Write the structure tokens for this entry.
Amino acid sequence: MITILVGEEQFEARDGEAAGEALWLSAAEAERMTGWALEPEGMCREGMCVPLPPGREAEFARAGRLNVAALWRHLGKPVARAERGDAWVLGESAQARGEALRSLEAPDFTLPDLAGRPHSLSAHRGKKVLLVTWASW
């Protein structure tokens, strides 16, 4: 089993295969985790398609499986993996992170209070909110 972090979500790939810098998933599992699907036009998500480089299609798709690490790199996004290949992170591009910082809008998240009741940042949209964070490392 391979653990994959995509954005803020964690997935377990039951039939994933790590081969060096490649992360092969079934087409269905790749779409479930990333939202990207192989179409005749290339890799598509939410009505947007990215053509695969001519002559390099086999680096991205073969026998009903997709190399999501190659796709991520093709999109200009960072990919990190554990040395054993059992954990992968498909990150956001520096451009996307920079745009989020320039907007000064924090991404939505939900955390419990001391009583265990969940609170979401989106519930406070339109109000001034002070976020205080702390980490032990």
Notes: The longest helix spans residues 94-103. The chain has a mean pLDDT of 86. The CA atoms of residues 26 and 65 lie 4 Å apart.
